[in-house]
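Journal club side-thread
Mid-discussion, someone asked how the predicted structure for our own chain would compare to the paper's figures. Pasting it here so we can look after the session.
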Amino acid sequence: MKNILYVEDDAINALVVKKLLNNTFNITHVPDGESCMSLVSQRYFDAILMDINLGRGKMDGVETLHKLREETRQAPYIVIAVTSYALPEDRERFLQEGFDEYMAKPVERQRLIDLLIQFVGR
């Protein structure tokens, strides 16, 4: 199974996504950008699902993405924004920031699985 890192400060959202993807991917959850950066320096993930509003941490999802891109140029990650920013212009804004894809919350199970399979396979 592919390993997916989910960066999400809301424990309920994290639990929901873990349950949605449980039988298809191995999901590891961290609550903030700092934990994300620490963990990716220790192990590899096939993709990262990134919330944008990481209220508890010092970095939001966009700042974490930029730091991740800066520090992992040799092995760039697939990073998908999973966010409650759901206006039509939000998708374009996050893609321009450097995310590989965008998904508005609440996530739909099959759409999220299909998106991950498109990027990383099974």
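Post-session note: Residues 19 and 27 are 9 Å apart (CA to CA).
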